[in-house]
Amino acid sequence: MGLLTQPTASEQTLQLLRDSVAGSYNQLRAAFNNACQLVWENPYKMTPAEVLAALGTDAAALFAYSNAVVGLLNTAAAETGEPVITAVVPDGVTYTLNADGTVTLG
Fold first, then answer.
1. Is residue 76 part of a domain?
2. Is residue 2 included in any domain, yes or no?
3. At residue 1, does pLDDT exceed 70?
4. What is the tally of structural domains in the chain?
5. Rounded Cα gap, residues 92 and 31, in angstroms
6. In contact, 95 and 63? CB cutoff 8 Å
7. pTM of the predicted model, to two decimals?
8. Do residues 70 and 85 make contact, with C-beta atoms less than 8 angstroms apart?
9. Hey, is 104 helix, strand or coil?
10. In a domain, 97, yes or no
11. Residues 6+ apart with CB under 8 A from 84
């Protein structure tokens, strides 16, 4: 395509779809990374246990959501070249999802 040649409707549509998918992927990955940082490397100096306690009965839902997001991001990883996410918790951290929706570390 020359500098003055206008893209076809198909080319424009394809580019908009690519941009939309890439933008969605980048936003989801950034939100996931931010959520992980808020739990495991909290900028307000809260410990992970304090963050999970503050979430209360919503803590288990955070883990369920995070695992679903990891599945989606890892599906896209082959296409994006991004590294695969192997866990939603740091190495060596164990946790229990309690029946009441809380999460216990250790």
1. yes
2. no
3. no
4. 1
5. 23
6. yes
7. 0.84
8. yes
9. strand
10. yes
11. 74, 77
Alpha helices for 1-106 (secondary structure H): 9-40, 48-55, 59-80
Q: Residue 15's domain spans which residues?
A: 10-105
Phi, psi dihedral angles at 56 (to 5 degrees): 60, -130
The contacts found for 19-27 with CB under 8 angstroms, 24 or more apart, are 25/73, 25/76, 25/80
What's the mean pLDDT in 21-48? 95
Is 37 part of any domain?
A: yes
Contacts (Cβ under 8 Å, ≥6 apart) of 89: 40, 95
Q: Which two tokens stand for residue 44?
A: 């307000």
Residue 64 identity:
A
At 46-82, the pLDDT tens digits run 999 999 999 999 999 999 999 999 999 999 888 888 8
